[in-house]
Amino acid sequence: GSAAAERALVVTEGLLIYLTAEQVTALARDLHAQPGFRYWLIDLANPRLLAYMTRTWGKGVQRGNAPFRFAPSEGTAFFRPLGWREEQFRSSMEEARRLHREMRMMWLWRLIGRLYSKRKQEEFRRMSGIVLLERE
Length: 136
What we know:
This protein is of the alpha+beta class and about 140 residues long. It has a single domain, classed as Vaccinia Virus protein VP39 (Rossmann fold, 3-Layer(aba) Sandwich). The protein has five helices and four strands, in the order βαβαβαααβ. It has helices at about 20-30, 45-65, 90-100, 105-115, 120-125; strands spanning about 10, 35-45, 85-90, 130-135. The longest helix is centred in the middle third of the chain and has 17 residues, at about 45-65. The chain starts with 7 loop residues before the first strand and ends with a strand.
């Protein structure tokens, strides 16, 4: 095989949140079984964001029969035993600010966020993000 085929990038943006943990586990294993799949790009939410989205968008999501399911409490560590490690994490909030696409009143959330501990600030930062996983 060519060198390029040994470094393929798999993109599943917008998919994992709709799967169960068991389905994500199966997908992670299936992708890892392909030796040419070196990188996997995903978006990932944490349980706090999942609960918020379910509360605010719940009825619309139920009508579409596409409930939000996957938001592992362990974050990207969920993928480690499946052969994938976090190579890079980009916070959705930070990227929105960088691209001048923040939600209204985000400045207030940033201000309030300064009152929290560093650990809690990091938890908020990692509420949602784009993750580049690399096979181990």
